[in-house]
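(Structure overview)
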Amino acid sequence: MTEPVHSAPATTIPLGAHLRDGGTEFALWAPRAVRVELALVDDADNQTNVDLALNPDEGIWSAFVPGVGAGQRYGYRVHGDWKPEDGQRFNPAKLLLDPYARAITGYVDYRGPISDHTAESNFTRDTTDSFGAVPLSVVVAPSPPPTPLAVTVPLSEMVIYETHLKGYTQRHPEVPEGLRGTYAGFADDAVIKHLTDTGINAVEFLPLHHFVSEPFIVGRGLVNYWGYNTLGFFAPHAPYASAKAGTLGGQVAEFKHLVGKLHEAGIAVILDVVYNHTGEGGHEGPTLSFRGIDHGGYYRLTSDNRNDYDVTGCGNAVDTSHPRVLQMVLDSLRYWATDMGVDGFRFDLCTTLIRDTNHHVDQNHAFKQAIAADPVLADKVMISEPWDLGPYGYQVGRWGKGWSEWNDHFRGYVRDFWRGATNGVQELATRLSGSSDTFDHGGRPATSSINFVTAHDGFTLRDVVTYDLKHNEANSERNRDGTDDNRSWNHGYEGETDDAAVNAARQRTARNMMATLLLSAGVPMITAGDEMGRTQGGNNNAYCQDSPTSWVDWHTADEWAAQLDLTRELLTLRAEHPLLRNPQFRSHREVVDDDGDGLGRSEVAWFSEHGTEMTIDQWHEQGRRTLGQYVSDPNEAFLIFVHAGFEPIVLTLPGQPWAGEWTIAAHTGLDKELPHRPMSAGSTVTVPARTVVVLHGDVLAHLPTVIPSPPTPDEPVDEPTTVDVDPDPVI
């Protein structure tokens, strides 16, 4: 290594570490620092410090260091004033990660001197060197992006599968033991085959940005498992790399391989990203990167500048009202979309990202404007978790075009409906229709709603039907953590049981919930393992359980085979019939043929069990537990009949113009409970208690031409005409 060459004006230099011309260009934004040292760490953990030069117009410190190549470990020591009252907590004794680091290696030693302050006071600087107790940044060589999707998966066709990368393969019997829990393990053919066989075409990974555990979790002998505690917005989580790949940049290559394998199978990749806060927590937490570079620049602070203004519940909130911080978030998104091949993003606590300089929510925030105008990001899937914990943080339904949102209205209602805690079926119709009450405005499509019954936070689907109460004792918080609003139903017995009748009822309810999810307008999201009976033993907040509690148990697939079969059956129907995944909100307007002539039936209609459209009185029946949703286009029709009553019900099948013949395409009952033969319009079928039935209707694409009556004897006889009649009319 030779002496550094100080760079040209920083406007021409990308932030981070970038290889060029036989060395590496380093650049760090630290506008209020008075000195920045680059600490280069060799294999023997010796440090060589290099001073960076400041471009005062940009607040960027930079240097080109010849001889530094890929795999080089490094950090920063940032000098400046210790003025907590001014949002300045500079402490060169603390070795800091590069916010733009493409790879991170090492762990946090929570017993080490990782705080910028003394144990006695959060506002007194601690001068103990943190080297050896903190992770390091790594210089990464550029590499080609993964193989892209051959055909982009439209949002209207997506079936999202939310999964934890490690937990999904940690117990997979067909994944080689040394690859379980890694990027390479998830890329295994057996894993991908399960996804494609099920009908999954979009995987949403829980956070894969490099993250750390919170000190209070480590103090209990646990770890952050979910990953919602980001430390590096550009670096894939190093512990998920296989031993063969290593963590000196190998995690980048292995992640790209995974993305390429999923793309080759036609599966889009969505990342759950956490830009709302970082793993440093509040000012009393560790100083690992951002706080030591510019506490008041990266984070929202209270009016006295001494404390973090927290709207996330995690100790700090990233300040995207600052242009440079916003730029970091956008640069990160572009990097993952281009270099890493990611197809979309789900933003954790997204409302935090649209707060202005006064911490107020602004739906016209520069964050949203920049994404909409960006040629790289504008066509990516953007999913908002539309809330945070601050004032007016609940923003469900307000994100506008270009955004989809987690729909907690759907989750709550579907659980309530199937446990018998709702009145009537009016809201059921609304949820089946894509939650039009929430999203049908401003020209937004039905795909604005991300429908889900479960997610990573909360009960699994099996636990929703098995537990009335949370059982989080293993989290060591005296079962005080996690929500008490589970809206679950144990079917008369708390926890697992050998009672066959109870288990049959539970599985039936689970199938009903899955069917309701997959048959509703909007974008369905399945939580990994729900299709085969995954349980967390009643733990509804397994964020700290890197253990069999959270890992997918692949052996439950046999016991819950009916659940898996139904999921596959319904997803096949969705894939084969666009009518079941219409991206737009439907109305009661008449369906027309190719000539624009009306066909007498509606795009959507609501039916009672009597085979007729719902009356006003029926809509207002508080005890009603039965509803049929009819949907049609010029070529076909479906009747989705939802029956949550505890007794069988006789269903009369609607006749023309709705359909001439009906066939059951899927149902949530047992094999022999419903007929498989075609049934004529007007006939009846007994629907068992607590069953969803999907009926496919044979419809007329053109109304039959009316043949004129023969003339009377005193009328002149016209020349014969040719009449175009359907050779096989449906009656």
Observations:
- The mean pLDDT is 94.
- The CA atoms of residues 593 and 634 lie 6 Å apart.
- The chain has three domains: 10-138, 155-579, 587-698.
